[in-house]
Amino acid sequence: MKPPSQRTLRIVVVNTVPDLSAGSQAADAQAHRNTALRIGLLESGYDIVASLPADIFLPERIAQIQPDMIIIDSESDARDVLEHIVIATRDEPRPIVLFTDDQTPTSVDAALAAGVSAYIVDGLHAERVKPVLDVALARFRREQKLLDELSDTRRQLAERKLIERAKGVLMAKNRLTEEQAYQRLRSMAMNKKLKLAEIAQRVLDVEDLL
User: Fold this and answer.
1) What is the C-alpha separation between 77 and 85, in angstroms, rounded?
2) Which residues partner with 12 through β-bridges?
3) How much is the pTM?
4) What is the DSSP letter of 71?
5) Containing H/E element for 96?
6) Span 136-156, pLDDT tens digits
7) Starting from the edge strand earliest in sequence, which strands make up the sheet with 118-121, in order?
8) How do strand 118-121 and strand 96-100 relate by DSSP bridges?
9) What are the C-alpha distances in Å from 101 to residues 17, 20, 44, 98, 107?
10) CA-CA distance, 47 to 40, in Å (whole number)?
């Protein structure tokens, strides 16, 4: 599968407005928002694969559709739908764009904590959709790169600690120098066709059993 940068983005739109039947003015306003959003997406060449309600089935539907990006259209407080979005993107992060009229600091904080890449207040205009999505996608990719680098650093540190502990075991049991213990681990790893950290973990596992 081509990465999102080399193909049309597949987008799911989530509408958080629960009821438009209460008044025609609210219905007209929401219809205008929906139209502006769809025009902006279609003119920019994006593929709207689904328009979903903000209900308890949202995480399951997103998991089935596997979109590249999620757009939330919310006139007011979107914290309930953000909880569903967190569940849906916990294992497979995706860029999330929230268009809303809610400017309260608590709502902004909740959105950022949920992983929203772009929080756009009173900006749902067709001509603004593409630049907003471009920025959100770029920000998401940058953040994911930083998270991956942090994860790699933590993994390398954990592996280094395993190797140091395993060297200590070999040094104590076989009266080896630190260099000799390290070479013993390397030899064992090569013979078993395992990574150095994996063989170090095995050495520690055996020691725990004794």
Assistant:
1) 14
2) 50, 70
3) 0.69
4) E
5) strand 96-100
6) 889 899 988 999 999 999 999
7) 47-53, 10-15, 69-74, 96-100, 118-121
8) parallel
9) 12, 16, 23, 10, 11
10) 11
